[in-house]
Amino acid sequence: MMLSAQNSLPSLPIPTIDDTCERWLASVKPLVDADEYQECLNLTNEFKNGIGPKLQKYLHLKRLLSTNWCSDWWEEYVYLTSRSPIMVHSNFYIIAQAEIE
Fold it and tell me: What is the pTM of this model?
């Protein structure tokens, strides 16, 4: 019953390379100084003009071949590969509850 409507849901959208890079830069900016941020900008431009488009094509291909392009990666790399306690490090409900209290 829980997954009975799974096939009627729209597929998870794939963010553009520009959106991904902008989000990464926004998340890194408060953590680094000006020189390190400039290096992050350089790395972002190198990624956009280098391997990024090729990886984006692979991601679109994966989306065509699977029902959810990120769920198997999430399960493998967040739940199965990590050696840290799952309950603490990957359960967002607990984190949200801790912030509320």
Answer: 0.65
Question: Helix (H, G, I), strand (E, B), or coil: what is residue 15?
Answer: coil
Q: Dmax of the chain from CA atoms?
A: 53
Cβ 71 vs Cβ 11: under 8 Å:
no
CB atoms within 10 A of CB 21: 19
70-98 tens-digit pLDDT: 777 777 776 677 666 666 666 655 544 44
Residue 75 identity (one-letter amino acid) = E
35: exposed, middle or buried (C-beta count within 10 Å: 0-12, 13-18, 19+)? exposed
Torsion sign over Cα 62, 67, 69, 75: negative
Encoded tokens for 51: 């391997």
The pLDDT of residue 40:
96
